[in-house]
Amino acid sequence: MGSAEQITLLEAENASLRSEIKLLNEKVMLLLKLQEEQSIKKDSHNSHNPPSNDKSKPKRNKSLRKKTGRKPGGQLGHKGNTLKMKAIPDEIVDLKSNYCECCGEDISCLAHELVSKRQEVIIPPIQPLFKEYRQYSCLCGCGHHQKAAYPENINAPIQFGSSVIAMVSYFNVFQYIPYKRLQLLFKDIFNLPISEGSIENLLKKAAAKSKPVYQTIFENIKTSNYIGSDETGAKVDGEKWWIWVWQNVKNTFLKASNSRGFDTVEALFPNGLPNAIIGSDRWAAQLKIASKSKQLCFPHLQRDLIYLIETEKTKWAKQFKELLSKTLKLRHFVIEQNKPFQREDEQAQELENELNQLLAVTLVKNTVPKTHTFQKSMIKYRNYLFQCLYELDVPPDNNASERAIRNVKVKQKISGQFKSGQHTFCVLRSIIDTLRKRKLDVFFFLKQIMAT
Fold first, then answer.
1. Using one digit for the tens of pLDDT, what is the confidence trace for 193-234?
2. Is the torsion defined by CA of 410, 411, 414, 420 positive or negative?
3. Nearest-angstrom CA–CA distance, 271 and 255
4. Are the C-beta atoms of 392 and 302 separated by less than 8 Å?
5. Residue 105 and residue 100: Cα distance in Å, rounded?
6. Is 45 within 8 Å of 306 (Cβ atoms)?
7. How far is CA 228 from CA 53, 206, 277, 286, 379, in A?
8. Contact, 247 vs 401, CB < 8 A?
9. Dihedral sign, Cα of residue 443, residue 125, residue 155, residue 136
């Protein structure tokens, strides 16, 4: 074999080896990347997963808020609350000495001067009040025996009154007290024996009486400018159900359904919500509903971006996260000024242009697949990011919906799964939360509803 042929053969072999080395290097880099991604687990700080599902908890505080440097506790200028004395007490105990501690002289007849006073708050023993209605009749001159009518809500020889029904509803639905403990509470504190069966019947009765108010809340929701929505799973007699919430600053409407899909939304709002801006966590069912517009939840987007930064380490994800932070600062400015941005305002246009530039960046799908998918989603929902700057009543987060729906989880942790009372819970909890949002006396209005 000549030297020229040998050189050609060696060059071909060298090229083949170089190609193989390049392929092996690419595989090694891919494996290292996969290994790094596997070491970064999704938890509450970088995903939609709740904190209760975090497997490893090295840090207690996973808040996305940046530290302000302020000391914990009440800040300067914050008004504290303390127990206040009653101007006119219910009972007065005069403390006067009968003799002098120094010389033992009798001083009971001398004039005493008030020098100070202290008050003690006491709850007196609670005894149920039995109210008896006595029906009388008389013979009219025409020969008719006229009987007086019982009040419309009094329809049994003995029954629990509206205050008891309201109290059972409040303790079970709002304070999450299960039937057995509620039975003991009424026996030990209110001296009123009540069975678990009676408690269940009273809750059903309360829900039936509350239906008109529940429907009114629903009508208010349908005509609102902003509606936040969320959903969470709930066990009902061993089966998976879903509790949906639709809420705003004045109303909370809960609905139980055996589906998490759009069919639940469509059944509630067959004509959509054409006059409302819907706030959501990017769940497809809420995004699919016909509405005036949508607002995506910033904290959820921020957690998604944290995961992208930790796994794929793209500059794009950092820039998008900074854009959201800038938007939140402008939102605080809007609230302070009590004046929303107009789309032609310079700051608003700068923000819109910055968003357009980020969405126009080319991301290679094979290199950063997760970031690429997130960018595609943001392109699709591009107009659902800045509604909070143009509408004062549209928040940049869906926190209020999450707070409203979290009560379902708290109740199930304390009382266990629903047996059959999921609809009753939704009706009564909707009314209680709505009353609280409107700063109304919850127990007073519950009694009014139960008295109908």
1. 999 999 999 999 999 999 999 999 999 999 999 999 999 999
2. negative
3. 18
4. no
5. 5
6. yes
7. 24, 27, 8, 10, 22
8. yes
9. negative
Cα–Cα distance between 169 and 206 in angstroms, integer?
A: 7
Instruction: Report the DSSP beta bridge partners of residue 136.
Output: none
**Residues 6+ positions from 384 with CB-CB distance below 8 Å:** 287, 293, 294, 295, 296
83 or 12, which is more confident: 83
What six digits make up the tokens of 133?
């209605």
State the angle between helix axes of 369-380 and 346-360 in degrees (0 to 180), rounded to the nearest 10.
140
Q: What angle do the packed helices 346-360 and 315-337 form, to 10 degrees? A: 160
Per DSSP, the residues of 296-333 read E-HHHHHHHHHHHHHHT--HHHHHHHHHHHHHHHHHHH
Phi/psi for 137 (5° steps) reads -135, 160
User: In this structure, is residue 345 part of a structural domain?
Assistant: yes
How many Å apart are CA 267 and CA 279, to the nearest integer? 19
Q: What's the rounded Cα separation, in Å, for the pair 390 and 335?
A: 11
Q: Say if 340 falls within a structural domain.
A: yes
Q: Which domain holds residue 313?
A: 298-397
What's the pLDDT at 81?
Answer: 79
Q: The tokens 């149920």 sit on which residue?
A: 128
Residue with tokens 């908890």: 57
Give the whole-angstrom CA distance, residue 195 versus residue 139.
42
SS3 content of the chain, % helix, strand, coil (to 5): 50, 10, 40
User: Per the domain annotation, does 329 fall within a domain?
Assistant: yes
E-strand stretches of 47-124: none
Largest CA distance in the chain: 144
Nearest to 305 by CA among 42, 50, 47: 47
Read off φ and ψ for residue 297, nearest 5 degrees: -75, 120
Residue 72 has a CB neighbour count (10 Å cut-off) of: 5
Select from 232, 224, 230, 244 the least CA-distant residue to 280: 230
φ, ψ at 7 (rounded to 5°): -65, -45
Specify the number of domains making up the chain: 1
Greater confidence (438 vs 36) lies with 438
Whether the per-residue pLDDT at 156 is higher than 70: the answer is yes
Q: Taking the model in full, what pTM does it have?
A: 0.82
For 232-289, how does the pLDDT look when each residue is reduced to its tens digit (9 = 90+)?
999 999 999 999 999 999 999 999 999 999 999 999 999 999 999 999 999 999 999 9
Q: Is 227 part of a structural domain of the chain?
A: no
